[in-house]
Write a structure and sequence with these properties.
This protein is mainly α. The protein is built from 3 helices and no strands.
Length: about 100
């Protein structure tokens, strides 16, 4: 197995891990948004104002963008790994 093929496999596996991290982060963010809505509902409009004043919406949006970044880089890593695997020539003559 050539070095280029091994590197391609490693890069693709890293891409899968990045996609998993992004997916789990999005799931955690969805749970946090549901909990924030429940907390805002306890106190009516005052709870929503309090959460907005604390910057919870902005923080959740920033975390969403970070999770999307993980997913995009994961996809790019898988594509790059597949390209490395595809372009590795096993049949090329080895130099002495």
């Amino acid at each position: 197995m050539s070095t280029k093929k091994i590197v391609g496999i490693v890069v693709a596996v890293i891409g899968v891990i990045l996609i998993a991290i992004g997916g789990f982060s999005l799931n955690d963010i969805a749970v946090a948004e549901q909990q924030a809505q429940a907390l805002g509902g306890l106190f009516g409009g005052a709870g929503n104002d309090l959460l907005g004043g604390l910057g919870l919406d902005a923080a959740l949006e920033a975390q969403k963008n970070k999770a999307y970044g993980f997913i995009v880089f994961g996809i790019a890593s898988i594509v790059g790994g597949a390209f490395l695997i595809k372009t590795s020539d096993e049949s090329a003559p080895k130099q002495a």
